[in-house]
């Protein structure tokens, strides 16, 4: 009974209800506007909610988080600019659909499957949080390292046309992520004697440069072609269409929840893995992947939304953030005198159930706002590109500047934008660069921990992998991804098909 | 039979740059801690830059073997005038952001860019620029409290004056 009253607390308290609704609404737009990230919005929120009571502060932040993860898909579909890293995969099939005049249909299906994914993630949080913590706690550094390698290798599969270009992009991303002082030894890496590089390159500047500026520059080629009038009819998808998406959606929601629950991995990796999974299990989609396949929308959007619930699992049970936003939320809980971790579940279970209730409510608001506010939102793309492109550039500049209040970040953004533009022109995928930057730290830290724990013995590390069932499964998955991208594998498949 | 796609203008130079850049990164990564230990701070940077050298080398070889395409030109298809103007304008924006401030720099940038790209009248360009900057200012500065450079505009005084009106 007490659990139910705690879950219903955000519904019964009007103030909390309003804050969750306002947060979700704002989150959708924050997630959608290129250059504004959920991480940034939640960080800023901490600065003016720390004097609030913990419940209203959490209600607002949870709303922004939930809305923001979904909101990223909108600009991915309408402008081919993912509002958040978790929407990178969504752009691959969402934008082609918008170009075909099916933006309304794409956003409608994305909204419904995001709700389904979000619901499954929250359900998993409520049902499995205590028991899953036992599983996640057994992860060794070598497992995290394998997980990071797995994520990077997936980019090869995602880059489509040229695996080698995908690998180069991913490696470049890792190198960018390594710039700055080494956190363990405080030794400079790729700093080249420039003091400003000691703190590293702002990830937001890289992301805005690669996806905001490079995209805007590329669109200049077609600036004078009239803007596509996006059809927004048929927003609410038919039950038959939703039912068709359900089997894949349920599978990719499970992937999203599990990946989200792994500490350090979030919706971005979950979405890319789910997209890759969808490509593998749907060999003959109605529309090919990359050209507007509905499966290419269902998989990443169910996964990144279910990863929200998943990300709260290690945060609430272990005190380890599932992703960047939950890391900031841990900071917010500390500010409010709470200590997330196993003891929080024991001493203050009401806090856990309140979070479950707020997440569920935010998910419902996301569905309502998502299905009702599309027409207004879509008007953005009906603006002539000659106006829209300069505005995107200003938003990108503001976003890059706002990270550290530094003009240097604007120069970085421009540099990466120009570089990203040339990469695009010559067929290099940009998604892997961002993925590499995200995974750089995870890979580096855990490689070093793993090899130190084996007394610098590579053979010892391999022995550890082979003798641990969990590591072995991860290692086998890595090998399978490599193998499935080799010409030999393609030749065998072609022979099988013939 | 699959036909080999033609090499685009500047593609060889760009890929050569990436290859040389990867070599430079490897040399820099080696300088961090050499082959001291597998757990050294330079281990992952070295492995990463080695991967870059291998992949950039393979791509460079592939591009080198492609036939040169004749349908495209560097200034016509890869770096047309609009791209150069936009890059210069963004660089100027960044340069003037601190001394002039966010509001005048953004209005100027939008005005010039919209005029250049759309060839519409100055009235339209000024109206859209001022309206857009007002909206961005409202969202970023007033709602998200993002600090933007004030420059020559006495924002504090103006906001205080508005505050006194209510």
From TrEMBL, chain A:
It comes from the Bacteria. Keywords: Membrane, Transmembrane, Transmembrane helix. The chain crosses the membrane at residues 16-48, 54-72, 106-129, 135-156, 163-181, 201-220, 320-339, 351-374, 386-403, 426-443, 464-483. Residues 17-435 form the DUF112 domain. PANTHER family: TRICARBOXYLIC TRANSPORT PROTEIN (PTHR35342). This is C4-dicarboxylate ABC transporter permease. The lineage of its organism: Bacteria, Pseudomonadati, Pseudomonadota, Alphaproteobacteria, Rhodobacterales.
Automatic annotation (TrEMBL), chain B:
Keywords: Membrane, Transmembrane, Transmembrane helix. The chain crosses the membrane at residues 12-30, 42-64, 76-95, 101-117, 124-144. It comes from Paracoccus halophilus. This is Tripartite tricarboxylate transporter TctB family protein. Signal peptide: none annotated. InterPro entries: DUF1468. Residues 13-149 form the DUF1468 domain. It comes from the Bacteria.
């Amino acid at each position: 009974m007490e659990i139910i009253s705690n879950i219903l607390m955000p519904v019964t308290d009007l103030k909390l209800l309003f804050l969750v609704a306002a947060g979700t609404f704002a989150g959708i737009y924050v997630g959608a506007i290129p250059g504004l990230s959920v991480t940034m919005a939640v960080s800023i929120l901490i600065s003016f909610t720390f004097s609030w009571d913990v419940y209203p502060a959490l209600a607002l932040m949870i709303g922004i988080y939930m809305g923001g993860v979904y909101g990223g898909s909108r600009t991915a579909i309408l402008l081919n600019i993912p509002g958040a890293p978790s929407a990178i995969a969504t752009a691959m099939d969402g934008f082609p659909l918008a170009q075909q005049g099916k933006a309304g249909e794409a956003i409608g299906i994305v909204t419904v499957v995001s709700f389904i994914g979000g619901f499954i993630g929250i359900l998993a949080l409520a049902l499995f949080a205590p028991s899953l913590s036992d599983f996640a706690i057994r992860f060794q550094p070598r497992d995290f390292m394998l997980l990071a390698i797995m994520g990077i290798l997936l980019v090869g599969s995602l880059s489509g046309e040229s695996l080698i270009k995908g690998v180069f992009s991913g490696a470049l991303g890792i190198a960018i992520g390594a710039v700055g002082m080494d956190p363990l030894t405080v030794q400079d890496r790729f700093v080249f004697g420039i003091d400003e590089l000691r703190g590293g390159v702002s990830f937001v500047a890289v992301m805005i440069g690669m996806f905001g500026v490079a995209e805007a520059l590329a669109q200049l080629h077609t600036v004078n072609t009239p803007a596509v009038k996006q059809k927004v009819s048929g927003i609410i998808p038919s039950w038959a269409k939703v039912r068709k998406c359900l089997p894949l959606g349920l599978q990719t929601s499970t992937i999203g929840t599990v990946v989200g629950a792994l500490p350090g991995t979030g919706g971005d990796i979950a979405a890319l893995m789910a997209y890759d999974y969808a490509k593998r299990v749907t060999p003959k989609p109605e529309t090919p992947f990359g050209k507007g396949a509905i499966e290419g929308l269902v998989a990443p959007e169910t996964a990144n939304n279910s990863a929200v619930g998943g990300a709260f699992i290690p945060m609430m049970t272990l005190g380890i953030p599932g992703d960047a936003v939950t890391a900031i939320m841990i900071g917010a809980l500390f500010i409010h005198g709470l200590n997330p971790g196993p003891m929080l579940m024991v001493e203050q279970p009401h806090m856990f159930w309140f979070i479950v209730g707020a997440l569920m409510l935010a998910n419902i608001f996301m569905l309502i706002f998502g299905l009702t506010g599309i027409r207004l939102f879509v008007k953005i793309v009906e603006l002539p590109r000659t106006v829209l492109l300069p505005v995107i550039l200003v938003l990108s500049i503001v976003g890059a500047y706002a990270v550290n209040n530094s003009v240097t970040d604007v120069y970085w953004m421009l540099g990466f934008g120009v570089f990203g533009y040339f990469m695009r022109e010559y067929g290099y995928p940009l998604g892997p660069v961002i993925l590499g930057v995200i995974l750089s730290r995870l890979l580096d830290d855990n490689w070093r921990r793993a090899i130190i724990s084996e007394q610098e013995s590579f053979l010892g590390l391999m022995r550890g992998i082979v003798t641990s069932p969990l590591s072995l499964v991860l290692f086998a998955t890595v090998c399978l991804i490599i193998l499935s991208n080799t010409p030999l594998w393609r030749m065998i498949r072609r022979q099988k098909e013939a | 039979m699959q036909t080999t796609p033609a090499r685009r203008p500047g593609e060889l130079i760009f890929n050569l740059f990436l290859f040389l850049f990867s070599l430079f990164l490897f040399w820099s990564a080696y300088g961090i801690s050499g082959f001291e230990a597998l757990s050294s701070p330079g281990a992952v940077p070295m492995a990463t830059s080695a991967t870059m050298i291998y992949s950039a080398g393979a791509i460079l070889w592939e591009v080198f073997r492609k036939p040169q395409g004749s349908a495209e030109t560097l200034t016509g298809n890869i770096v047309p005038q609009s791209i150069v103007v936009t890059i210069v304008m963004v660089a100027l924006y960044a340069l003037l952001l601190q001394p002039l401030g966010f509001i005048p720099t953004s209005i100027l940038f939008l005005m010039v860019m919209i005029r250049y790209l759309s060839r519409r009248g100055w009235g339209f360009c000024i109206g859209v620029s001022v309206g857009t900057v007002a909206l961005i200012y409202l969202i970023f500065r007033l709602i998200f409290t993002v600090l933007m450079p004030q420059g020559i505009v006495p924002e504090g005084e103006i906001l205080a004056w508005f505050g006194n009106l209510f």
